[in-house]
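Incident log, support desk, overnight shift.

02:14 A customer reports that sequence design results differ from what the structure should imply. Their input is reproduced verbatim below. On-call engineer (initials T.W.) acknowledged and began investigating.
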């Protein structure tokens, strides 16, 4: 099987797996300690958590703290529901459901429009009296990079907090500048599923959303030292390999543009994550394509939107018609995807498309 769905999740890096196993085993089987217990085994587990916290902190700017959560969705909920500010929330039109649904749950959000290039307008005039502005670093469906520095500066000028969902940007790009709150997820950077983090700028106050011990200060529940250790190892690896990973993604991107030269590309060609290719083809039956190409794992739009039957709100926000949105596929490669795999996958996809177009 060829995996081209690295925006949905990434394979576990061998280094992250090794760190998790080391933590699970521990010296002489002592790895199962509760990091919140005061005895020696607990303190050993707590030390491992703090070591990993420092590694994860390297993904963020200085001047804040890392709160471990179960995933990015939880981190985003903590930020948006826990902010001690009153006023409306503004979100970009292409936010992930984690932000979009939470914004709707806490009030009627102001929506920041996005151009046909898939980027929010950095000169958007934000109204005063906002509680929070939420704009993602990199879009998960079409891979476009958002002007977060400009929008964060505007949010600050308007007296609002700025939350950046950096799930698809973390480890690939430097941290978003000037954010007050940043959410990330381990399983998008070759770490384990079941762990994420919220970075909170010093001085920003939040109300905990999960009570029951407040082991993480702002979040309750026993941490898993193995998951945290895997996240830490994945974060270090992503930092160390940022340039190498980007160059690899770029090589595959250039080849993919040749291979899919007669398809339409969604979103800006320049301002983007080069590991995410969102393309469409008139009349394409994506569900049928996915069932024909059994050896290639790819996505119709985004994993969350697929299955709902509704055209993606991201593709609609950049001006595509329902038909164009529904004829879109997302190919997402990563650190462990080879050029040969991409070429084989493209061959399989193109043969299936040809068959559809010949026989209807
Ligand atoms: N934000 C973006 C941009 C995502 O792509 C995802 C996952 O697909 C999330 C948030 C949610 O992340 P998690 O799976 O860690 O809850």
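02:41 Re-run completed on a clean worker. Output:
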């Amino acid at each position: 099987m060829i995996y081209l769905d690295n925006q949905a999740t990434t394979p576990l890096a061998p280094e992250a797996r090794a760190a998790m196993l080391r933590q699970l085993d521990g010296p002489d089987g002592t790895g199962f300690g509760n990091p919140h217990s005061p005895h020696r085994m607990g303190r050993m587990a707590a030390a491992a958590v703090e070591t990993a916290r420092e590694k994860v902190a390297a993904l963020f700017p200085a001047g804040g703290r890392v709160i471990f959560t179960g995933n990015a969705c939880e981190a985003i909920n903590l930020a948006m529901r826990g902010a001690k500010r009153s006023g409306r929330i503004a979100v970009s039109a292409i936010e992930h459901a984690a932000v979009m649904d939470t914004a709707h749950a806490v009030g009627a959000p102001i929506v920041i429009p996005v151009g046909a290039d898939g980027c929010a307008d950095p000169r958007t005039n934000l109204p005063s009296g906002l509680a929070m502005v939420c704009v993602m670093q990199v879009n998960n469906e079409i891979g476009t990079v958002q002007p977060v520095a400009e929008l964060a500066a505007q949010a600050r000028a308007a007296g609002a907090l700025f939350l950046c969902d950096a799930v698809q940007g973390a480890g690939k790009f430097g941290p978003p500048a000037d954010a007050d709150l940043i959410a990330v997820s381990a399983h998008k950077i070759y770490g384990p599923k079941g762990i994420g983090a919220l970075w909170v700028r010093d001085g920003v106050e939040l109300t905990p959303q999960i009570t029951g011990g407040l082991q993480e200060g702002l979040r309750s529940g026993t941490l898993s030292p193995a998951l945290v250790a895997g996240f830490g190892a994945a974060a270090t690896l992503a930092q160390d390999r940022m340039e190498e990973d980007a160059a690899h993604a770029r090589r595959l991107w250039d080849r993919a543009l040749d291979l899919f030269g007669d398809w339409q590309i969604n979103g800006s060609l320049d301002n983007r994550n080069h590991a995410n290719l969102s393309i469409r083809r008139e009349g394409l039956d994506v569900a049928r394509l996915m069932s024909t190409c059994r050896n290639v794992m790819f996505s119709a739009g985004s994993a969350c939107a697929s299955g709902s039957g509704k055209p993606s709100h991201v593709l609609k926000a950049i001006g595509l018609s329902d038909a164009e949105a529904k004829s879109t596929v997302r190919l997402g490669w990563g650190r462990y995807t080879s050029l040969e795999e991409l070429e084989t996958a493209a061959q399989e996809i193109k043969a299936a498309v040809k068959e559809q177009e010949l026989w209807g």
